[in-house]
Amino acid sequence: MYTLGIDLGGTNIVAGVVDENHKVIAKAKVKTDFPRPAEEIVDDMAKVCKMACDEAGIDIKDVYACGIGSPGAINPVDGVVVTANNLGFKNLALTKMLKEKTGMDFYIENDANAAAYGEFLAGSGRGVNSCVAVTLGTGVGGGIIIDGKLFSGSNYAGGELGHTVINVDGEQCTCGRKGCWEAYASATALIRQTKAAMEKNKDSLMWKIAEGSLDNVNGRTAFDGMRQGDESAKNVVDTYTKYVAVGVANIINVFQPEKVCIGGGISNEKETLVAPIREYVNNEIYAVMGKPCEILTAELGNDAGLIGAAALYKLYK
Length: 317
Ligand code: BMX
Ligand code: ZN
Hints:
Layout: E1 3-8, E2 12-18, E3 24-31, H1 38-56, E4 65-70, E5 73-75, E6 80-84, E7 89-92, H2 94-102, E8 106-110, H3 111-122, E9 131-136, E10 140-146, E11 149-150, H4 182-185, H5 187-200, H6 205-209, H7 221-227, H8 231-255, E12 259-263, H9 271-284, E13 294-297, H10 304-310, H11 313-316
Parallel strand pairs: 1-4, 4-8, 9-12, 12-13
Antiparallel strand pairs: 1-2, 2-3, 5-6, 6-7, 9-10, 10-11
Zinc ion binds near residues 175 and 182.
């Protein structure tokens, strides 16, 4: 039995055919190419599903269930993207439009919720009842799993952990608030912090790593600089990991889940990222009673979202 998942992002649209063991057997990708009309993006979503099925050597009609992980506020019952500012979607009846184009029923969830569900079923969130997953990417996404079910509040808009404030009147966030966790702990924020440190220290090794241009700075630049012994790079990483850790400690104080899984691009740093977070959290959380919460990096990498999306039927069918 195969299922199909789409991970809709601001940069890429990825579709994957997934087997009953949550293994991705075929994948296809197109550029989101935003800004452009929603209708065109949805056309490409249908196209990329077909491409993934062709790659798997199956017909889309043979797929048991299809799902989408989309950024923004999603109503999974009506299949509507209520708002996704990075895609220009407002009250878009996405599952209905995809049904018209593919003939298939689609389930939909917020991208970080889908990724959390993927990790819970098949990644580092396996084997527990409660798990909170965060993604450190363009933004900071959050997905909360309680008793094996996604929890997104009374109206599905909950779980936006990136938009909890960690610094009152701090950095401007894209959501309109100031000082959100996302404005400090996303990959976008890390890149901004790295560039600021480079501007301050023209002798930093990070300039060499970025081949002399701020345009080449990415989420790895500071980590690579630190590994090569650069002091400014180490300061960037230390401060950034502390920002991530503050949010993780907040999550543990609220939920005390069995696991917190950290995904998104920055989680490729694995232990370099999570070891200092564990230490910080140990000193900051309110109480440890019983087995302490495990803090892990996500195992499924960039596939978590589409694997979770492909399995959404388990929650909604
Ligand atoms: C933002 C928000 C979340 C999303 C998160 C991670 C939008 C469009 N996005 O906080 O809904 O889950 O980013 O998104 O409102 P990513 O783009 O980093 O994967
Ligand atoms: Zn915000």
